[in-house]
TrEMBL record:
It comes from the Bacteria. Residues 156-232 form the MgtC-like C-terminal domain. It is found in: Cell inner membrane; Cell membrane. Residues 19-139 form the MgtC/SapB/SrpB/YhiD N-terminal domain. This is Protein MgtC. The keyword Transmembrane applies. Its main location: membrane. Keywords: Cell inner membrane, Cell membrane, Membrane, Transmembrane, Transmembrane helix. It is a multi-pass membrane protein. The keyword Cell membrane applies. Virulence factor required for growth in low Mg(2+) medium and for intramacrophage survival. May be involved in regulating membrane potential by activating Na(+)/K(+)-ATPase. PANTHER family: PROTEIN MGTC.
Length: 238
């Protein structure tokens, strides 16, 4: 049988050691994620680490280091699709970026183990754990520091209310006013209201603006024919 002819005890032992290291390191990373009730917990991180390890280990045995390098490149890009699955957008807020980055690191740990870089796999695991635990107090401290909102990038929205029949024209006028003020527009939405009015709201590209600039634009918009009211809002871009 081909299996018996190709079987080498030393290679098999190397694979076992690589998988055990990947499993153990993935367990350490995943346990911390599971404790904090993240989307990708213990089993996900272990499977990512073990899977990446086996792909790289298989390439090492079939094509040597050159083959392993090619497989690592595919692991790096392929894990991005899995990471994208845990990233969720809620309004202007995005959640799951840290979880996705942790999965990416778990794949790197597995790749190191599969390439027989066991010490590097252990070292990387320690750094990942440090990043997810030791840096949390620093993040909390930074978030509590007073900040100048006008110097911080954020998502701004500018809206006006007009009769429903004038919504399309109002949309064009709103975009024209924003472009004249050199405010970068991301998207414009029209929402019909039960009162017979429509709200035309423009979302600006993430940027930093001063309240006076926005107040001036809204003041001009309120003078346009048919505009019943105008306002602007600010939300964090984190």
């Amino acid at each position: 049988m081909a299996f018996i002819e190709a079987f080498e005890a030393s290679d098999f032992a190397s694979t076992i050691i690589s998988l055990l290291v990947a499993f153990a390191m993935g367990t350490l990373i995943g346990a911390e994620r599971q404790y904090r009730q993240r989307t990708a917990g213990l089993r996900t991180n272990v499977l990512v680490a073990v899977g990446a390890c086996q792909f790289v280990d298989m390439a090492m045995h079939l094509a040597g280091p050159d083959g392993a390098v090619r497989v690592v490149a595919y692991v790096v890009s392929g894990i991005g699709f899995l990471g994208a699955g845990v990233i969720m957008k809620e309004g202007t807020n995005i959640r799951g970026l840290n979880t996705a980055a942790t999965l990416w690191c778990s794949a790197a740990v597995g790749a190191c183990a599969g390439a027989d870089l066991l010490a590097q796999a252990v070292l990387l695991t320690l750094f990942v754990l440090a990043g997810n635990t030791m840096l949390r107090p620093l993040v909390t401290a930074l978030e509590r520091l007073p900040r100048d909102d006008e110097a911080t990038e954020a998502v701004y929205e500018i809206g006006i209310r007009v009769p429903a029949a004038q919504a399309s024209d109002a949309r064009a006028r709103l975009i024209s006013q924003l472009e004249a003020a050199r405010l970068p527009v991301d998207e414009v939405e029209i929402t019909d209201r039960p009162s017979g009015e429509s709200e035309v709201r423009a979302t600006l590209v993430n940027t930093s603006l001063r309240s006076a600039e926005l107040d001036a634009v809204v003041a001009k918009l309120r003078t346009l024919p048919g505009v019943a009211s105008g306002d602007w809002t600010r939300s964090s871009s984190d």
